[in-house]
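Quick question about two entries, pasted in order.
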Amino acid sequence: MTDKFLLLKEKAAFIRKEVLRVAVQNGAGHIAPSLSTVDLLVALYYDVIRISKDWSGSAEWERRDRVIFSKAHGCYALYAILCDLGFIGRADWENFYKGSFLSGCLERREVCGLEVSCGSLGHGLPMAVGIAYAAKRQGGPDHKYRIYCIIGDGEMQEGSNWEALQFAAKYQLSNLKIIIDHNRLQAMDFLENVLSSGGRDGQECTKELVRRVRAFGCYTKVVPGHDVRKIVQALRGVNRLASPRSPGPQCLIAKTIKGYGLPCMENVPKFHFRLPTPEEMAMGARL
């Protein structure tokens, strides 16, 4: 029997190629922040979450898990996955950034798997907290779904996120699973050069983020963000943490590389919104 994690790794490689192909051919610039999320999204959509295209329009649809993609400028991998799963049409994905309904930042279209509109940073997590709180208050079998929020580490500089975490901890929202894409780069520089402390090796930056998230009431775990096996294991682990021992929200801090898969982009701040040149593409890829 083929190892499922090998299949997930192959799927992640396919999604990266799709992101690069469509983004370059259509002139869409947010490639690097999209590439850092590929393995996280593949783990969620192909192994962990409860969602099915066949549920659309049925009572079961209400029981789906919700994925709130807060770092909405890095949405290309999400689009590619939703196309692969049949939620988004192939023509719409191929014409992304060139006239289809898919925009550079997410716009809500539930039937396509796009749960909320995001763009301005710091909005996704508060909305995810609201959804999780409503589900908990409503109760019953139709509201047992989990809410996963993917957020950038640079985005965690927004004060609205910390207010949301306080609320989630106060009301013990164990149905909320937060995934921080910890690639250590925000729009144009490393976090350590903007607001975070520590050296360029990133160790102190990670420790500081862990300390803060734990202080705000979240169970917190650091995972390698490009190891699909460990991501799946960690996600399935936090899904079992809804207990008196850990009654509040859970947070995975995924250590990723911005631009992962393209040597010309990896950890290079200028590629936040920039297309690679033919010469840079000739440097090869680890896809």
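Here is the second entry:
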Amino acid sequence: MSINSFGRFFKVTTFGESHGPALGCVIDGCPPGVALTEGDIQPALDARRPGQSRYTTQRQEADAVKILSGTFEGVTTGTPIMLLIENTDQRSKDYSQIKDKFRPGHADYSYLAKYGIRDYRGGGRSSARETAARVAAGAVARQVLGSGIAILGGLVGMGPHALADDARDWPEVSENPLFCPSKEAATQWADYLDEVRKAGSSVGGVIEVVAKGVPAGWGAPIYGKLDGDIAAAFMSINAVKGVEIGNGFAAAALSGEANADEMRMGDGGTPEFLSNNAGGVLGGISTGQDIVARFAVKPTSSILQPRKTIDRSGSDTDIVTKGRHDPCVGIRAVPVGIAMMACVLADAKLQHRAQTGREGPADTIGG
């Protein structure tokens, strides 16, 4: 299987399967001298870790990360960083009854069609378990970005419910198990998800990720667009079916004058935008505004409701997926989205520094 890496300058390669002995990643391109210990990575993994509430899979994994290479005395050396996360709570027997059946909505059939073999134990490489490695890599990326850049993320939509654009209370994300930036919505959506879970069904969600403090100038036009890299990173996450930057699809309903982000010269001698419909990226290059992106996650396909399918012999049959699954996979996708944004931005930072010799914008206005 090829194409297990992403990034140009900050390059991440993940490895491992859902029910294998371990998973992890190798990070190539991390600069030397960046402070990094397991303690810098573990909090991000703890946020993604399963089994922390009744709204996520009850698989119990410690997700304890080990740094196997690339650091010395608490800082990076510039050599490849290898991170390892052991699997400790696999229940492969939960999948024995469906090993010859294709789960609707899963990658079972498409994997078999491509490779001629598939790991039926939790989906193998296609399992969302793989995202633990991405979250670990994202924690390293955040060390590369430094404290001047903050990345926020939260669940802003669940099923038919959605937060208004002006209803974001970001500190609230850490106060509820849904990672929702609204106390009121989190309470209401929890009741709704209880009903979905008890019915043996599932529901989708929308995650918003906001990066603050990104300087103008990161990214490149045409084939290295920053928003294109963000979209690709989000689309690579399991179950993601749509991505939008800024106003996204809603921009199509606006007039030119309503959608354009007008500008004025600020008191500090730098440009100020009067709105951020573009989501902080113009022409594939960051503007210095908040980068705002959202992605939509489909309902978990593993449900207790019987579904029509076929088996490997070509016979029609029905399937009920047992085991431990997320009624809304969008909840644990929040830390994954934050991690992928961090990886893209770390890559953009290093790429910009390599091409221009600086980390911020060129001083070309008002001179």
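Reply: The chain has a mean pLDDT of 91. The longest strand covers residues 150-158. Hope that helps.
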